[in-house]
Design brief:
This protein is an all-alpha fold and about 180 residues long. It contains five helices and no strands. The longest helix has 24 residues.
């Protein structure tokens, strides 16, 4: 059912009212499905001798008829037991009316792609890696010559710990106006 249930009358609890309404509806559906017809509309039963009408047939012909009757009876039983389901699924593969043309276009595209691939793989590269590498080294040398501080020394510096002055005792902190105490 939809999320926002709208009861017919104003209620205080929509959830409970929805459950009650569903229970009433299910009870009604059970009663409807279990009802029996009041009027007998079956008609008269045909007498057994008229219903059978046994004729003398050859055995193989009678076996064929019995088999066909049994197949039809089983199909009718399946229809009755299927609860009204319809077999509407067609078992055929979809075919296109222009499938031949599409196949030809696909082959043409494949041939064109193969020709493009061959042209690309046969072509020599226009980039010369050695020239690019030499240019990059020249650029790095110019950058190092122009810069005020050399580039490779940042990782080689050591951090120096400051030693205590001779007037201070070791382990005491120095008071200065610039550094607040922690």
């Amino acid at each position: 059912m939809h999320r926002s249930y709208q009861p017919l009358k104003p209620v205080t609890n929509r959830y409970l009212q929805q459950r009650w309404d569903l229970n009433q509806y299910e009870h009604h559906r059970r009663k409807v499905s279990s009802t029996l017809p009041v009027v007998d509309n079956k008609g008269m039963r045909t007498p057994a001798p008229i219903q059978l009408k046994l004729k003398k047939l050859p055995d193989d012909r009678r076996l064929i008829i019995d088999r066909d009757n049994w197949l039809l009876a089983s199909k009718l039983a399946n229809i009755v037991c299927s609860e009204g389901l319809v077999d509407h699924r067609n078992q055929y593969s979809p075919r296109s009316l222009n499938g031949h043309q599409r196949r030809e276009e696909l082959l043409l595209l494949g041939r064109q792609n193969l020709a493009i691939y061959r042209r690309i793989t046969c072509r020599q590269s226009e980039y010369r890696r050695q020239l690019l590498w030499d240019d990059w080294e020249r650029t790095q040398r110019r950058r190092d010559d122009i810069s005020q501080h050399p580039r490779g020394l940042a990782g080689t510096q050591r951090k120096v710990k400051f030693a205590a002055t001779p007037t201070e005792k070791p382990g005491t902190q120095r008071n200065s106006s610039k550094c607040p105490q922690r």
